[in-house]
Amino acid sequence: MSIPSGDNFIVRAVPVLQIIGYKNSGKTTLACKLIAALTAQGLRVGSAKHDAHEFRLDDYETDSEKHLSHGALETILTSSTATRSMRKSSTSLDEIAQQLYGKVDIIIAEGFKSARYPKIALIHHAVEMRDLLAQAADIRLWISWEAHEDLQEQGLTLQIADISSKLILYIKEQEDILHKAISLARSLL
């Protein structure tokens, strides 16, 4: 995938599929199942997670935390089995996709509602559909904790022109959800 740049040149980036929704909607569960399924198919899968809250880059009193608290803007912690990069600034999903180019085949991103990539949205209640449509674009699949009939009773699918009943899956249709999520992810490659 190529991303147009302001300097009239193209930046290479990895395809991204976002999973969005509100707290406890099932985003992480779906992301983990999708990562496992795509990995089992031989794809190199990366992931990104947006945290809406502040978090610590490292545990108190570790050497890397001391480096950061003394002014390092970024530090990399590595061992014989793993590496972790810690930076004292936010990173956009576009930047993450650029950084992972050539390292992974696709990124499954949890959150980043306002980013421009294709999305799967999970909702608990019908009103969340309207809210997410106001915050996010390119939602290609909806997964609802309410049965489709309940959504129709509320008149939601008829009021929102962008929603087709074929795009809304009930959370209990786990096999169908995973199959459609895999198909969507593979269509981005």
Report the average pLDDT across residues: 86
Sheet having the most strands: 6 strands, parallel
- β-strand number: 10
Q: What percent strand?
A: 15-25%
Query: What is the straight-line distance between the termini?
Result: 8 Å
Helical percentage: 25-40%
Query: Strand order across the biggest sheet?
Result: 4-7-3-8-9-10
Low-confidence stretches: none
What is the count of helical runs? 7
Question: Structural class given helices, strands, pairing?
Answer: alpha/beta
What is the multimeric organization of the chains shown?
A: single chain
Roughly how many Å is the radius of gyration? 19 Å
The H/E string reads EEEHEHEEHEEHEHHEH
Shape type: globular
Which helices and strands occur, and which strands form pairs?
Elements: E1 2-4, E2 10-12, E3 16-21, H1 27-40, E4 45-49, H2 63-69, E5 74-78, E6 83-87, H3 93-99, E7 106-110, E8 119-123, H4 126-135, E9 139-144, H5 148-153, H6 156-159, E10 168-170, H7 174-187
Parallel strand pairs: 3-7, 3-8, 4-7, 8-9, 9-10
Antiparallel strand pairs: 1-2, 5-6
Helix pairs in contact: 1-7
